[in-house]
Amino acid sequence: MIGIIGKKLGMTQVFNDQGQQIPVTVVEAPPNPVLGVTDKQKSGFASVQLGYGQQRTARESKKGEGKPRGRRATRAELGHAKKAGLGYAPRVLRSFRLDDAPGKNPEIPSYKVGDVVNVGVFAPGDQVKVTGTSKGRG
Hints:
With 138 residues, the protein is mainly beta.
């Protein structure tokens, strides 16, 4: 089973055919580029590394500009993304195992670096596992 990286935008409601109100979460899930692939023969498990978003890159000219604000992508991150054919470094990188699905589907989909994974990998009615990172309220 493959995953996809998204961002929660908020909550809303929809109404079904019987007029019942159903609370739903709105998630922005743009297509995620594949930045790395691990095959089962080398490491013992199959996985893909997906990227989400876009990081800022270094300035061309530092003359006449103020102090840099915020984190910028390193040259290593840019080089890793360039191997996948991207001109930018993704803000978030996550790895998804392909062989630890609940049903242990013997048909593991094959991906290669540079492919794009979108919400089309899910069918209506599929059960999904959602992992979130909350903001500190401390």
